[in-house]
């Protein structure tokens, strides 16, 4: 969305009512250009009321993902420099990889729909139009490769916190990269890196969050959406703008902690949100599958699990299932 639309949105946000003439004078444009910008905002899902002799009033923020909304989310960001929005993409990860050389600072890619969304182990991630948040956040840390395990722990906490703070829903973390609500998956993320000589230059983290209920999500017994969980609690409104604001804030905060503090600084909070400890899980590594109960997590981010024979296993990378 154009810079003009963002400027008009900013003026609307600051006033109870503001006339088209005042906006035109403030922005040094014509009243026709103001009117067109207002129409664009309406198309993006904003509710704008027009009253004769008073002007325009912003009634409601957009619950639809759009470039105007996303750009406003990061305009004061201390971390992310840019947001790229596309209505439809194959995968936000692909766009992010294409841009990492051109864009020198951390940035975000968001899409309204993915036709080829994927999760860990190249599993398909269903990404229907206007039903979820499909994004890739690119970080540029210059850290050693073995630090990526801890990065996932900080990132999972950021997403869980954003869901809880915005929607007042209990979000649980399933190691290493899933978020659950009431026993069902609402979010997954995929972490990929670009590295050289054992040093990571870029972390490309693809995040998929089910915001709204769809036939595809309903058909999956193990999945849920924010909308569905809100309805179960007798609430109907899911505030996308507030959620995006909180999510970006949490990503920035947890990334800062990741870069400056050890995992022990958040371990207690992370453990409190985990949903795996004390339960027997099916753990699938590269060459074996076994049953064990997760009992702890090390400061390096490795999962410790005890099998039926009392043997403790250190899990570095695996798929775990209830």
Description:
The chain has 322 residues and is of the alpha+beta class. The chain folds into 3 domains: 3-60, Arc Repressor Mutant, subunit A (Orthogonal Bundle); 67-272, 2-Layer Sandwich (BirA Bifunctional Protein, domain 2); 276-321, SH3 type barrels (Roll), CATH 2.30.30.100. The chain is built from 10 helices and 15 strands. It has helices at 3-14, 20-27, 31-43, 67-74, 92-99, 148-167, 215-218, 226-232, 240-260, 267-273; strands at 47-51, 55-60, 82-89, 107-114, 132-139, 143-144, 172-174, 178-181, 184-196, 199-210, 281-284, 289-297, 303-307, 312-315, 319-321. Strands 3, 4, 5, 6, 7, 8, 9 and 10 form an 8-stranded mixed β-sheet that branches. α1 (3-14) packs across α3 and α4 (67-74) packs parallel to α9 (240-260). It is elongated, with a radius of gyration of 22 Å. It starts with a helix and ends with a strand.
Features:
322 residues, alpha+beta, Arc Repressor Mutant, subunit A, SH3 type barrels, 3 domains, five-stranded antiparallel β-sheet, elongated, nucleotide-binding, Bifunctional ligase/repressor BirA
């Amino acid at each position: 969305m154009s810079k003009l639309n963002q400027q008009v949105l900013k003026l609307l946000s600051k006033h109870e009512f503001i006339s088209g003439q005042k906006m035109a004078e403030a922005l040094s444009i014509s009243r026709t250009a103001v009117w067109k910008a207002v129409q664009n905002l309406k198309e993006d899902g904003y509710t704008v009321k027009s009253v004769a002799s008073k002007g325009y009033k912003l009634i409601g923020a957009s619950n639809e993902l759009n470039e105007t909304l996303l750009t406003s989310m990061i305009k004061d960001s201390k971390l992310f420099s840019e947001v790229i929005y596309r209505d439809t993409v194959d995968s936000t990860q692909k766009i992010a990889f294409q841009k990492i050389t051109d864009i020198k600072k951390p940035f975000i890619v968001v899409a309204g729909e993915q036709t080829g969304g994927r999760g860990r182990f190249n599993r398909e991630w269903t990404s229907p139009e206007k039903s979820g948040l499909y994004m890739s956040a690119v970080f540029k840390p210059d850290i050693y490769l073995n630090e990526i395990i801890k990065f996932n722990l900080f990132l999972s906490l950021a997403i869980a916190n954003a869901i809880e703070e915005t929607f007042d829903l209990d979000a649980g973390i399933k190691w290493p990269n899933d978020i659950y609500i009431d026993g069902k998956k609402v979010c997954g993320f995929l972490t990929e890196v670009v590295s050289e000589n054992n040093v990571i230059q870029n972390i490309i983290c693809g995040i998929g969050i089910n915001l709204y209920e769809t036939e595809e999500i309903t058909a999956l017994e193990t999945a849920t959406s924010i909308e569905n969980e809100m309805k179960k609690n007798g609430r109907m409104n899911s505030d996308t703008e507030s959620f995006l604001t909180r999510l970006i804030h949490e990503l920035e905060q947890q990334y800062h902690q990741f870069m400056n503090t050890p995992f022990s600084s958040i371990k207690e909070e992370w453990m409190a949100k985990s949903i795996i400890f004390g339960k027997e899980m099916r753990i699938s590594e590269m060459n074996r599958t076994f049953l064990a109960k997760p009992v702890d997590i090390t400061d390096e981010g490795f999962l410790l699990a005890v099998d039926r024979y009392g043997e403790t296993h250190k899990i570095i990378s695996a798929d775990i299932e209830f």
